[in-house]
Target: ChrR-like protein with cupin domain
Amino acid sequence: MSIKNYITKSEQITWNPLIENNIHYQGVFVKSLHFDKATQRSKAILLKFEKGASYPYHSHPAGEEVFVLNGNCEIFGETLEQGDYLYTPPNGKHSVKTQHGCVLFLSVPEEVVLIKNENN
Model:
């Protein structure tokens, strides 16, 4: 085993528009850090939100971890700033929005589920 096979050089990856289930989230960009071949999805990602961008209300069946690398965002009425960490427990629900932009690291063990009625 070579550790080189497990290192991702994130600066060498291009930011791609976030498109899920044919929905393009304007102003949100993604870099995959760890793609799980067994589940055919990225479980560790970077998300970049431009000023005023948002991601809709959703749940996390297996939870989520978020670390703010740059800027700030609002999640469930709380402002997270650079250096802040948020653990969302399984089945936790929230949306994400930012006024000024941000870059987030996310660990998402399972696919999120969008929720039509936002009650956050």
Summary: The radius of gyration is 14 Å. The chain is about 0% helix and 60% strand. The mean pLDDT is 94. Strands lie at 16-20, 23-36, 41-49, 54-60, 64-75, 78-81, 85-88, 92-97, 102-107, 113-114.
